[in-house]
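step: validate -> pass
step: tokenize input -> pass
step: predict -> running
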Amino acid sequence: MVDQYLVHTNFAKETYVDSSFGIPSSKFSIKPNFVKPINLGIAEKRADSFLFIGRLAEEKGLSFLLNTFSSVDFVLRIAGDGPMKNDVLEACKLAPNIKYLGSLKKDAVEKEMRECTALIFPSIWYECMPMTLLEALSFGTPIIASKLGVMTSIVSDGYNGLLFEPQNQSDFLAKIDGWRRRTEAEKKLFYENAKLTYTKNYTPQKNKDLLLNIYKSTVMGTISIES
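step: predict -> pass
step: emit ->
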């Protein structure tokens, strides 16, 4: 008999509750992932370039991303490896605004995260809880993501990032173009909100406190029922 199920996000909880498993909402507790803080503040000056970091694969929305940025002159920096690496290299030849950085080490990833104008996350599947998103927030980096699955639990549209309809190129272009047109003061507010989202939800200490509270409430509830 399971007393409590742990899920990463509210989206995951709702998915299970709405499924045919027949598990009531009260049986679920939300406990997200966390990332260790890096002792760096929000970058004072950022590059005018977008960043994609992750597996170079179709399910990550890479074809959509390459097709979109091939039609504009906005700079996109791509880091990672995967089955679509050759597609990325070909796109770089045809569109000089697309830059492939290769598979980066941790310190290089952190530098890219901290200095980009925003992280692009165009995944076309639900995901679980991508650590890339939490890492971006820890650097105060806004996220422009597909309005899909778990991304809607992490990115608050107009607060710490922007959401676009999955694989909708016109909506995506409107979001990235609109982002570039924002004033530095407007962008700075997004940077601060991204960092605040991290400190409120995704630090090791917050995670520890949340998990202990879940354990305590579950144990107390079990004792109450048995007594």
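step: describe -> Residues 34 and 207 are 7 Å apart (CA to CA).
step: cleanup -> pass
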